[in-house]
Amino acid sequence: MFHRSLGLIVKNTSSKLNRGYCSSSSFDFTGKTVINKKQLQNLIQENKDKKVKDYVLIDVREPHEVEFTSLIPSAVNIPLNNIQESLHHSLPPLNQIHEDDNIIFYCLKGGRSAAAVDIAKRMGFKNSINYPGSYIDWATEDEN
């Protein structure tokens, strides 16, 4: 789904956000600033079949960037320029986001997602963290 007014790409819109940290998750957002690839993979896997996710994953790249790659599973796309307005007004796809929700931001390399975390934390979203590896790290095959 594409929201023209905000320039958003939304996938997996049937998922609802959980209100704060869920004890069933192996990842505790409290006091954290970053998440690594393995932790994110585990979190996505743990929440795969849940209607109410323990987190919201936001890709802050521009829609045209996402069109050439893809989104990390369960992610929604909200460009960095729209983050403050989307969080402040709980605009789609964040219709019911609250300050105690667990939010993970990522982009292509990690710079814009770090800026999004800063914006969210200044707005009171204390459980906002960065996936600094971002899409490049996610798309890279793991070495075994």
UniProtKB/TrEMBL annotation:
Which Gene3D superfamilies does the protein's record reference?
Rhodanese-like domain (3.40.250.10)
GO molecular function terms noted in the UniProt entry: thiosulfate-cyanide sulfurtransferase activity
Which regions form coiled coils? none
- Residues forming the Rhodanese domain are 51-143
InterPro entries this protein is in? Answer: Rhodanese-like_dom, Rhodanese-like_dom_sf
A single cellular component GO annotation: mitochondrion
What protein is this chain from? Answer: Rhodanese domain-containing protein
Its source organism is: Polysphondylium violaceum
